[in-house]
Amino acid sequence: MKYLGLKYLGLKYLGFKYLGFAVFILAIGFAASTPARADFAVVQFGDGYCRIWQDSGADPWGPTWRKIAIGLPTWAAAESALDSARAQDVCP
């Protein structure tokens, strides 16, 4: 009878290993399936030239720049912000 009990405990343990592995695979799958969030910014450089920057969290190289608009969700929104900055004579 002891042998059957140990075998039962072994199968139960093995089942929990499979369950844990399945949960791990599902978690990786859900993390990989979430869409990447791209946000854009409008950056003005020291000479006054403005352009759309692809990641508002990353900064351009050098000290002579400033962000005019940040956290824009799409390229179209960034183009609209750039056109607005040009209309207000912030960017040439």
Keywords:
92 residues; alpha+beta; three-stranded antiparallel sheet; 3 strands; 20% strand
Tell me about this structure.
By secondary structure, the chain is of the alpha+beta class. It folds into two domains: 34 residues; 48 residues, no CATH class. It is 49% helix and 20% strand. The protein has two helices and three strands. Strands 2-1-3 form a three-stranded antiparallel β-sheet. The longest helix is centred in the first third of the chain and has 32 residues. The protein is elongated.
Summed up, what is this model?
The protein has 92 residues and is α+β, with helices and mostly antiparallel strands.
* Low-pLDDT sequence parts: none
Alpha-carbon distance between the termini?
A: 88 Å
| Integer tally of domains | 2
Main sheet specs: 3 strands, antiparallel
Shape: elongated
- The structural class is alpha+beta
Overall pLDDT level: 79
User: Treating each run of at least 4 consecutive H or I residues as one helix, how many helices?
Assistant: 2
Q: Which series of helices and strands comes N to C? A: HEEEH
Strand arrangement, major sheet: 2-1-3
Topology:
Layout: H1 2-33, E1 40-45, E2 50-53, E3 65-72, H2 75-87
Antiparallel strand pairs: 1-2, 1-3
